[in-house]
């Protein structure tokens, strides 16, 4: 399917595979970012989709981020529009109602890494390299990098990567919690689909509720969120999946979820 600029979409069961496809480095363009936001919104409207995998086309790059040629003439209007589009695209990706998995198959630099940071889970191939080098060229990460990275790896490593421009390899990324798993070259998609099949066994309505609570923990005080968690638990009793899941367990059979 090719209705989205610089993106390729394939659906396999309950999983959508989105390939960043703007060779040679899969850089993000204004139209490509708008397409990414629209694509995720379209997937949110498809009740059969539980998981979303993002990867890069080719063997070298996940994504090198923005094409710096767009900023060479110092056009502030262009800078403002690109920052807005980056934000809209990756915030929409972060709000995907299901499970999002980044299959990092190569270099994930700048906006490329910020795209991966917007996903729930990150799988890196052993040769992958990751960095937020914007300050090296007089810029800064404007698509969630300064906010998402310290939440994931801690303030110290976030400052090393943002303030010093330090590049990390896959092993270091695993050690600091930037990725959840490292696999051999060429195996990130295989592993991502394995994780997606694990998500298929979960209630899709429970995934939506749980993800909202997990992400809410970033910004809301614990005392405020705990009552919300309890109410969300009770609200699930209004859903088909709750009755189906409990009864399937008691009857020792696989559940048939609402998106089957």
Would you write up a description of this structure?
With 260 residues, the chain is an alpha/beta fold. Helix content is 45%, strand content 17%. It is built from ten helices and ten strands. Strands 1-2-3-5-7-10 form a six-stranded mixed sheet, sandwiched between helices. It has a four-stranded mixed sheet with strand order 4-6-8-9. Helix 1 (30-44) links the parallel strand 2 (15-20) and strand 3 (51-56). The model has no long low-confidence stretch (mean pLDDT 95).
What is this structure's SSE topology?
Elements: E1 7-12, E2 15-20, H1 30-44, E3 51-56, E4 61-63, H2 76-94, E5 99-104, E6 107-109, H3 111-117, E7 121-125, E8 129-131, H4 145-153, H5 155-163, E9 168-169, H6 170-176, E10 181-183, H7 188-200, H8 204-216, H9 222-235, H10 240-250
Parallel strand pairs: 2-3, 3-5, 4-6, 5-7, 6-8, 7-10
Antiparallel strand pairs: 1-2, 8-9
Helix pairs in contact: 1-2, 3-4, 4-5
Fill in the keyword field for this structure.
alpha/beta, 6-stranded mixed sheet, 10 helices, 45% helix, 17% strand, globular
How far apart lie the N and C ends?
Answer: 23 Å
| Average pLDDT metric | 95
Describe the strand arrangement of the main beta sheet, using strand numbers: 1-2-3-5-7-10
Which overall shape is indicated by the principal axes computed on the Cα atoms? globular
The percent of residues in helical segments reads 40-55%
Oligomeric state of the chains present here: single chain
SSE pattern: EEHEEHEEHEEHHEHEHHHH
| DSSP summary, beta strand count | 10
Largest sheet features:
6 strands, mixed
Strand content: 15-25%
Number of helices in the DSSP assignment:
10
Structural class label:
alpha/beta
Using only C-alpha atoms, the radius of gyration works out to 19 Å
- Low-pLDDT residue intervals, each spanning 5 or more residues: none
